[in-house]
């Protein structure tokens, strides 16, 4: 494809994952001109980029899919937690039903968007020179669009294969007979390790902080069983909106110390065996607020994990006696055979807290103790400039020419977790100050997509061309987001939840922790009050 000018559009969506296709579907319904620019070569967003070995969603189906009936009525999954390949097939199914691709320009990475206050339009440019002048700019870039590679000394000298997991080659990598190092044990590292441990010649895991991984309890799903339950799907999707994290589970309406130790034990066993995020989300309602309760939750987890590990040293590194941070304050992930991998003779675990990476050499990794770990492949599972990075990496300039990166340099300001002052007609989904990291993606995206669509419809009906959040409104939203978070234990962990995984990034809660129902209510309330906290106006004629 050659560069082209899309001219004036009513809306331009950036990103072709869940958010982008949902937005496209809704905006088409308004009968307006809308296109999607997607940096990747196909649909899927996160599932297009993250094709590393073992990549899989930690949310269960059918809550992890769009609630559009045309899509779910004849789609079935093979597993409760599908892998990236099946998720990609789902996106092809979405295209076969909704014909989304015809309005998506792939291989089109948006590099800049400047607001033109004389026309109330965005001047958008992509890397290949493609341009568009949409009224509305809708960023559906997700929360993990900008990967983070730590500045390891000597990384560029490595002669083997090294990739960040989010930039994994689409054609895959041959691991047969290879010595592999995995740096990082977040959700990604855990998936890579449990996948590669059993098949590679040698695996070196370099862990800085242990992940409090909980059993996924993966299940095979059959077609007939799913089809039979389809009558319940509208209710399942409606109930998603009534749960704290947008799934099919609720916190238990009792405090940890309200019940006896025996009762707690039975309750823990029960929620543990359900798999998924039950052990966090369905736990006692004060589990993430009360430090002593949290310690009890940790201890049960620790003891279950230790039972699965043969080596006492590995037990202490992976499931320490004292937790480095409260349970759940940093994102735990779901695992299948993760801990058993460490019982294998071909797997070596290095505790970077005691023995950090000194440098990467042409043939491997040199640790602080002077040992050179010879490897053929390095998997960089080192995470993302999460939540804000996908937005701030684009040169987005608002009314006064300030970039979004400059605006958020010392702290994030948003209103309703979808807009920000000085950047009119710009909306973002599944980004900062929304339930993002604490929610099931499709649930959060649908609430926001519905809200943005209603807002654009309202503007078109009234002949308005500009909507902009006020500074006071975003100050209030920010205060509320930070206050809600301060009631829990989240600030006690170094985590991508609060930006502390990226050197120099301000450390503050980036997500709305108040839960899906409250978020939904607050956003609806602003709209119902005539878009309270926003200034709406019509374009000024150019000669004024
Ligand atoms: P995460 O959860 O941010 O994990 C990144 C991992 O990389 C984590 O274990 C980090 O250790 C480690 N890391 C980062 N920098 C370094 C350096 N300099 N040295 C050693 N180790 C390092 O990213 P994921 O991709 O796993 O998951 C992101 C989310 O995507 C996930 O939660 C899902 O929601 C989907 P640390 O913990 O900081 O000590």
TrEMBL record:
Its cofactor is FAD. Signal peptide: none annotated. It comes from the Eukaryota. Keywords: FAD, Flavoprotein, Monooxygenase, NADP, Oxidoreductase. Belongs to the FAD-binding monooxygenase family. This is Cyclohexanone monooxygenase.
